[in-house]
Amino acid sequence: MRPSSQNVNYLPDNCIENPRPTVEGFVQIKAFSKINLNLEVLERRADNYHNIRSVMQSLDLHDTLTIKTETRAGDNPFIQLECNNPTLPVDERNLVYQAADYMVKKYGIRQPVRIRIDKRIPVAAGLGGGSSDCAATLVGMNQIFGLGLTAVGLREMGLRFGADVPFNVTGGTMLAEGVGEVLTELTPYPSYRIVLACLPIAVSTKEIFDRLAEIRTKADYVQNEKKLNNDLTPITSSLHPEINELITRMKRLGASDADMSGSGPSVYGLFESERAAQTAAQALNETIKNVYITRPERMRLI
Ligand code: ATP
What we know:
Blueprint: E1 8-10, E2 26-44, E3 50-69, E4 79-83, H1 95-106, E5 113-118, H2 129-144, H3 151-159, H4 165-170, E6 173-177, E7 182-185, E8 193-198, H5 205-217, E9 229-230, H6 233-239, H7 242-252, E10 257-260, E11 267-271, H8 274-284, E12 290-294
Helix pairs in contact: 1-2, 2-3
Bound molecules: adenosine-5'-triphosphate.
């Protein structure tokens, strides 16, 4: 039985290939969210980025991208972007626009494109939604225009738009090293139910990384020895104690383990059964609006 609350978000089982088989000039792709099952932040590089070692896992919570070519000549603007979430820009500031524009220019594409983003992944939540939409755009444009790029080529291209984009080009369960671009496929993660809770607080990824660097210089950093591990959890929690409280709450509600994803603020818990996940999600949903029951996603973008 499902909780009566309207706000817990249930996701349908996946039943289509990704991307969906193309009708000429049309492609629809699921852009999956991700969590970091493990996130070690290593040394700061000369370019000010940090090297990381992270186990990244796609989740079935996804946005849907629909890409269509327009046949009418003289369509203006050349790339038309629309999104069901009015808070997101639909111009050059959107990573989807940037990815499409880059490919149009690089490959001399002459047909106007219309792209629609159906957004379900919470924005700026540490779930990598923007990066995933960006990767899906690269994969979709590659398919719709028959560019013949491989996963490796698309990952290389993706890195210019963000460190998480290369992972999202394929998705699944991967070890990400370097800034996130050195990827090694791992054994698929067990099919836990994953309860995601997204607190309505704004976290600046840059600020969290800067704070971590500052604390480490002071040499009072304590390594976290849990099964799940995220080096950024103590940092974001020091600014927003409700993150740690939520992790503790998830465990009290029966999660075998729980942690923050990315630089936050999303927190996730692993549950052995659908029933246990539902009970926990319902309890969390009494105080938190955005609660999702998800599962690890194995489907590949390419
Ligand atoms: P990160 O940790 O990489 O900053 P995140 O997963 O926490 O990412 P996103 O949902 O990717 O958060 O959004 C981060 C920012 O990127 C937002 O402030 C948003 O305005 C911008 N952005 C640009 N394009 C998109 C997109 N297609 N979807 C979501 N956000 C986008």
